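Revision sheet: structure tokens.
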Amino acid sequence: MPEDSTDKLRARVRAVFQSVPVGLVITDSAGKIQSVNAAFEKIFQTTGGSVTNVALGSILPMSDEQTQYLLDGEPGQKRIELESVKATGEPLNVEVALCKINMANSDETNWLATIEDVTQRHEIERLKQEFVALVIHDLRNPLAALFAMHEMLQLEYCGPIPKAVHDSLSIAQRSTKRLINLVNNLLDVEKLEAGKTELCIENFIVAQLVQDSVEAVQEFARQFDISLDADQVDFHLECDGESIVRVLVNLISNAIKFSPRGSRVRIEVERSPDFMEFRVCDNGRGIAKENLERVFHPFVQIKETDARKIKGTGLGLQICKKIIEQHGGSIGVASELGSGSTFWFRLPLSPAVL
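Predicted:
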């Protein structure tokens, strides 16, 4: 390639490097900064010359484990959040990706770090959580009073009322109850996300946890002619028993909701060397592949034509996910349309409570 063409190409590369809206840093093989772009200078309120030959680790304090995590797999796919500081001393939250690159006309392997300022995102999230908490606490007491008043009227403590009014009160009471459940679930999500919920880890007999969960939903299953079948296992597990029963009740209730009448919902438990796996299996319509990840998002309810006409809050599975992750475990679903669904979660045998 002619020398003038090479110079033009290099100039275009430099122009692209400088115009990218996220921070970019190129280091040498030892991790010392060789070049930064304008976005990096804006994020850290510094100049390129002031950080040249500075160790990247002094600006982005990553452990060896974090660095290796970012370098493993496809370039740029993995990201982590770090706390840093601007040149002015102001705190800074950044999201970082890291990969290795080979520079032209050099045998040396360099690093390329991409950096995004997420400080504003964190502040928006904090304000959102404060707003949700304020709304939740201001709604709970009025809703509870309204529910109690509906109940008193239905029981005719204030005198007899016509049947039509009874029916209207029943509808109003059910609506109020759903709102109370929504507020309570929102409060649970807020507590779990803020780390305000402490787990009470004790040694439990797994069969008892499963039995307590089945008993809690037995009447609900009977209403829809669903049989519940649970593994009888002789396992012990260290966990927060009340929270795990709550997860199982939610998963079993969902399985009942989406199962055809006369079918069976099965609760399975399997132990491996490192974890205990719980599975709730149904024979319902199943979930389309594109919706599998969405089911654990807040307020998401997959609309299937054969689902029971029972409205939920759309927060149950998110709460389950938070509880399992707080135990240091994982949760997921395996499903295909027409083949039913299996919701599963795994808990470590030696819990690393988060």
